[in-house]
Amino acid sequence: MNLTHPFMDADGDKLREECGVFGVIGAPEAAAACALGLHALQHRGQEAVGITSFDGAEFYTRRGLGHVAENFSTGESIAELPGSMAAGHVRYSTTGGAGLRNVQPLFADLASGGFAVAHNGNISNARHLRQELVQKGAIFQSTSDTEVIIHLVATSRYPTMLDKLVDALRLVEGAYALIVMTPRGMAACRDPLGIRPLVMGRLGDATVFASETVALDVVGAEFERQIEPGEFVEVDFDGTRRSHRPFGKPDARPCIFEHVYFSRPDSILDDRSVYESRKAIGIELARESRVEADIVVPVPDSGVPAAIGYSQESGIPFELGIIRSHYVGRTFIQPSDSVRHASVKRKHNANRKLVEGKSIVLIDDSIVRGTTSLKIVQMMRDAGAKEVHFRVASPPTGHGCYYGVDTPERSKLLAGRMDVAAMCEFIQADSLAFVSIDGLYRAVGLKGRNDACPQYCDACFTGDYPTALTDLTDRRRLDNQLPFPVNKVA
Ligand SMILES: O=P(O)(O)OC[C@H]1O[C@H](OP(=O)(O)OP(=O)(O)O)[C@H](O)[C@@H]1O
Ligand SMILES: NC(=O)CC[C@H](N)C(=O)O
Ligand code: SF4
Ligand SMILES: [Mg+2]
């Protein structure tokens, strides 16, 4: 029996997640705009990048491992991608999933013509669907969950491309923000709960779609609105747009972690400034768990806005007690523990003269595996800090994410293994506190969490998953049938 999960990485740790998508239709050099937009979305995925364009007759694709700048900075690379329609993708994956064949956009020649798709999110029943499709004779070219969508579209019996796509996505569980290209135009859609973000803008006569508004800013497009949860927007080459809500209007559950960490602070998300939300989390945190200290120090980068809020609310001065190297990217989204450890060390350094002899409040947006917090507390002590108090701008991350963010399985999450007191001891801080779940909801403009009908997906904090997790359930069943555990998941 083959026990290897086709979508799992080598150590069976996690699915590969969190990406950025960008699409433009109706612009003279669509691929150039696409490369620029992807550059602004680089924080969402640093492992691989791809762009597919269409010139009215042919589709062209260029995909590569690494950053946008490494793959799309020359005129020649853009010249390979002619046409007025293009879609691109920046990918964040983990060990084993980094191969070129998984890099998006994925493309296939279907009976109805070319079909390209760029996907941010994760399909929580992809394995299940893939097995069914393989049994029917489908031949997969990648190990990406996204390819399932292509096969479902290819085998749908509905007549129009939109109907085929809706038919396919009815079978899909989990999170998807998609940009699709066919010879007739572009379509963009979000899953019925709107778990992953997607926005729409206008650039002259062209329509632009992107994971975040920063990508619209960078290409000079005007932000129009978000794609609504469950909405499909089709755009033709003459600029005609059509909006459809084939799944009705279920209560949305967008990812609250986008506000905490993933999105750039200069993006507008769910009609809110991410920067303002992060600052407001810091304010809540100061109200809930104030501590006497000399200075408030952010853990750069994403701890900065919350630290500003904490400082303003508490009256404790904000200081840059840690300086980051700009040549090391996000450590959370790096593929292996050893790389993450090394990156955290190279990334941060104590501002020794400032920290020496001081009692400090460190603010970070989240503790996931504890790699960063452990190292930073030690760094502050080595630099002579008198007391180190740690405050976190999210509740404890105690559950895995199956919707497109690479939070690992529960057993590798610090909060999955320990309570707050034990975590405090582990990171060797003098005190540790997290913002409450209601505090987080207040910071994004609500009165608190509505437990009967939560307004966001917050499963990594609460364990309350808004969709079925078929692959996970299947794997647990398989685990229980065997005399030894297989790739434990939680
Ligand atoms: O507990 P851990 O497993 O270390 O993960 C949590 C850390 O990872 C993220 O930072 P990251 O370095 O990815 O990016 P940033 O520069 O945007 O803060 C996050 O902001 C925390 O600092
Ligand atoms: N995780 C993402 O958002 C990327 C899309 C898809 N799940 C992939 O692995 O390529
Ligand atoms: S589980 Fe957490 S990270 Fe994943 S979609 Fe839900 S809120 Fe976002
Ligand atoms: Mg960080």
CATH homology-level superfamily of the largest domain: Aminohydrolase, N-terminal nucleophile (Ntn) domain
Helix/strand structural class: alpha+beta
Number of helical elements: 18
Spans of at least 5 consecutive residues with low confidence: 1-17
Main sheet strand line-up: 3-2-4-1-10-9-11
Shape assignment: globular
Oligomer: single chain
Number of strands: 21
Bound molecules: 1-O-pyrophosphono-5-O-phosphono-alpha-D-ribofuranose, glutamine, iron/sulfur cluster, magnesium ion
Number of domains as seen in the coordinates: 2
Main sheet summary: 7 strands, antiparallel
Helix content: 25-40%
**Distance between the ends:** 23 Å
CATH fold name of the largest domain = Glutamine Phosphoribosylpyrophosphate, subunit 1, domain 1
Q: Tell me the radius of gyration.
A: 22 Å
The CATH class of the largest domain is identified as: Alpha Beta
How big a fraction of the residues is strand?
A: 15-25%
What CATH architecture of the largest domain do you see? 4-Layer Sandwich
